[in-house]
C-alpha cells in the first residue's frame, strides 16, 4: 500500500490532538519543498490555510470521523491537494498530501471552459427570452391574420423564418457547448451531423427530414454536459461504475431537450436518447431492438461509432478506415440496422472525406439536404 501511494505521489504524516504534526516521512516534507523538522510542529505553521478551522480539525482527531480537504495549494513550484482524515488509532489524524502539479494546467483549462460555458448559458437564456417575447408578439399577430391583407401574411412568413433561423443558431450553439466539455473531440459533432445527412439522403429521406436529422444529430451528445469531468476527461478506459454514469448522458440529453414541443427538438430528443440502442436489443438506455429504435437513432448510431473509430482519442489511436469498416460490418444485424449498413458503404468515401474538411467548413457551411 505504501509503495502504491508513493507511486501516486501521495505522502502522509500524523496529526495529534494538539494539532501538532509528528514528522516521520521525509518524502512528505520534500513535496512541500522544505526541510523535515526535528520535532513536532504546529499545522498552522506548515499550512497557514488551516487557520480558523482548528475546531473542525480537533473534531476529526477526537471523534474519529469527518474529513477536511484543500485543493490546489501552492508551494514553491508545486501544487498539492491536502486531505485530513481520522487515523486508524485513536486521538490522531492522518495528513495526506498529493502532488497535483501536472493536473493544475488541465484544471485551469477546464475552469476556463466552465466559465465560457456559463457565459454561453447566460447568452442562451437571454436569446431564449428574446425568442419567447418574439413568439408572444407573433401569437398576437396570428390571432388577427384573417382580417389582414397579403402584405401582413408576407410579413408573418418573414418573421417566422427569422425565428427559425434563430432556433437553428441556438441548436448549433448548444452542440458546441456540449463539445466544450470534451476538449479532445475536435469537429466530431459536425461530422456526425454531415455524415447522418449523407447516409439519410442515400437511404431515401426527404430534404426536410435530412435537415431535421442534421440539427438533431448535432445534439446527440448534449447530455455529456451533465457528466463529471473526472469521467468525461479521463485519459483511459472507464471502469464499470464510471460507465454506468457515462451511459446516463443519453437520458440527461433527452431531459434537456424535452422542454420544447417543437418538432425539431422532439427529433433531437430521440437521437440523444436512442443513439446507443442496438439492433439486437442489447443497447441502452431502453434496450429497444430492430425498428422499435427510431430511424434517426439508428442512423446516428452508425456514423457516431464510425467517426469515433477513425478519430484519435486520449486513450487510443485512430483506427484505419478499413479496420473501422470491418467493425461496422461485423456489427450488422447485432449492433446496427443491416439495411443501413449496406447504404453506409455506398457513401463511405464521402463520409471519410469529411475528415479533411476544416473546422470552419464543418461548422459554418450547411450540408446539401437534397431537393
UniProtKB/TrEMBL annotation:
Signal peptide: none annotated. Residues 110-144 form a coiled coil. It comes from the Bacteria. Keywords: Coiled coil. SUPFAM superfamilies: HD-domain/PDEase-like (SSF109604). PANTHER family: CYCLIC DI-GMP PHOSPHODIESTERASE TM_0186-RELATED, CYCLIC DI-GMP PHOSPHODIESTERASE VC_1348-RELATED. This is HD domain-containing protein. It comes from Oceanispirochaeta crateris.
